[in-house]
Design goal:
The structure is a single chain. By secondary structure, the protein is α/β, with parallel strands linked by helices. It has a single domain, classed as STAS domain (Transcription Regulator spoIIAA). The protein contains five helices and five strands, in the order ββαβααβαβα. Strands 1-2-3-4-5 form a five-stranded mixed sheet. Helix 1 runs parallel beside helix 2.
Length: 136
């Protein structure tokens, strides 16, 4: 997995994380670590471009959730805590969509993972980059 970033100055500054490659147990913590760096550098609105992610495992969902929690200014659940992390995701999904992190153009297999897990209710998902950026 590779992650590059772009910055967009609109109504609010948006950092775009361009993710390329599978997001799974072997690398999901790298995605969280990159988001932590961006947050420490001042990022408060992140658009995660998933258009080049052909596969996302359940650990990828933990990474996405952890990034959203981080942008709320909270400590994310320890990903090594297993089911505790998944229970936190479930509680957050029940609360509805958050607005600091949005997703762009997930591939069909990733969309299925988001829908099956209910994470599509936690994240705004956009197919168009301009519309996604304007939504912040």
């Amino acid at each position: 997995m590779n992650v590059s970033t772009d910055h967009f100055e609109g109504r609010v500054p948006v950092t775009i994380m361009n993710v390329q490659g599978d997001v799974d147990a072997s690398n999901y913590q790298d995605l969280i670590a990159r988001a932590r760096e961006l947050y420490a550098g001042g990022a408060r609105h992140i658009l995660i471009d998933l258009s080049k992610v052909p596969y996302m495992g359940s650990s990828g969902l933990v990474a996405l959730h952890s990034i959203a929690v981080l942008l709320r200014g909270q400590q994310s659940p320890d990903p090594d805590a297993g089911w505790q992390a998944y229970h936190q995701i479930g509680r957050d999904v029940e609360r509805g969509a958050q607005h600091a992190v949005k997703l762009l153009s997930p591939q069909p297999p990733v969309t299925r993972v988001l829908q099956t897990s209910g994470m599509d209710r936690f994240f705004e998902v956009h197919a168009d980059r301009s519309a996604a950026l304007a939504s912040f």
